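P.,

For your records, the input lines for the assembly:
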Amino acid sequence: MMRRTTTLALAMMLVIGATQLSAHDNFRIIGTLMKHESSKIDVKKREGNTVTIMLDKQTQITRDKKKVAASELRAGQSLVVDAYGDTEDDSLAIEIRIVPPIQAGRN
Amino acid sequence: MAVQASQAASTPQHVPSARTLVKASVVALAVAGLLLVTIVFPAEYGIDPLGTGEALGLSALSGVGAVAESIPPPQGTKLAPVPEGPYALYPAEYKYDAREFTLGPYEYVEFKYHLEQGATMLFSWAADGDVMHDFHGDPDGAPSSAAQSYDTRVRRRADGTFSAPFSGIHGWYWENPGGETITVRMTTAGFYASAHEFRFDGTRYPRTVRALDTIPVTDEEKETP
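Structure tokens returned:
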């Protein structure tokens, strides 16, 4: 009985674990920085929704093609974020570019 | 009921020995470690020391060394050229594709066509502003690191012919480098079997390529006896 239960539990763990694995994609998120914390940023896209993107030590932050410190990130800036993950809201920023202000909506 | 409860309470519980607990913990840790190395690492991080990720197709999930754009080669007859001296014959007619699209500030898009090795394509595209452009190809079944660039530079237009150096998906990446919207118009014709569009937001779409009989012949072009 114990052996059967253990086998079942292990099988369930494998099934649940497998559903957590999904393909990673590249995303470009373009919008306005709403909030910056040490390990994440909230960016409001031109479409109106806000996505949270994780940062790590490898995340490069640039302005005019020059590296800048994370402390340069300020709410209200226009950003172009190249991220990698399962979805936009579950992604890690590879590069964040601070760009001149972008008009809301498409030009 | 009271008797049963009393019996249950008085039945001695089997308490596993410390030795059994340690043994179970070691086994659990070993199984967890094995799953970590054989499944989680290859699928999530592309780390595949035992080759299980490659064997189970999990490496593609990581995106590291993933098969280029995850587009399988099209099924059916391969549109491969059969050289006949100065010309080549193909097992089917060529296809046609035309598109006009806009790139908002900092947006990018890719159009890729599947061509067999040696198959040819004609192309013309023009943009109303400078675009960062990369004409490149990804071999069938190869990791994305195997992609080859044919032409990478800022351009406004290009007109040319292309002969595929290998079987795979070939096409253009266009990126708007600035804050103004740019319109791009492109036309291709060639012996491609399928086409795909990849957008900056991670979405991808198969594109329907047009057969020649979808191109209308005007009344002036119809020959009358």
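Two observations worth noting. Chain B touches chain A at residues 31, 35, 39-40, 43-44, 58, 60-63, 66, 70, 102, 104-108, 179-181, 200-202 (CB under 8 Å). Chain B has a mean pLDDT of 83.

Regards
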